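Model it.
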Amino acid sequence: MNANQALGHYGEKVAVRYLGGIGMWIVERNWRCPEGEIDIVANDPGQRPGSPGTLVICEVKARSARAFQQPTEAIPPPKARRLRLLAERWLHERAPVLLRPAHAEPPPLDIRIDLLAVVLPRRGACTVEHLKGVA
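Modeled.
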């Protein structure tokens, strides 16, 4: 594993902890198909009682503090289109398997694509910027 892969792997671990901390539960990680990969599929239970919540496709971008590109610049229009395609593929292939048998509630009806930007400073704790509905 090279340094960039290690940074990405660590960023995903931080993102999973963050999502759990705000009440979301992880459905699947690192799902792959021929068109690409979804870093994290999560469920955001929402605020309405009895609501199945929102299915959230999470793109994680980890950056060192010295990186020039802002993590929010990491989803240009072609990447956004690919993430929407991946979300459709995941729903078709995995949602019936993962959401129905394991959980009594109906699968989420709303879908959202979020960016989790994990910034690792030279010293101190990393920060997570959570941008909802980026694509």
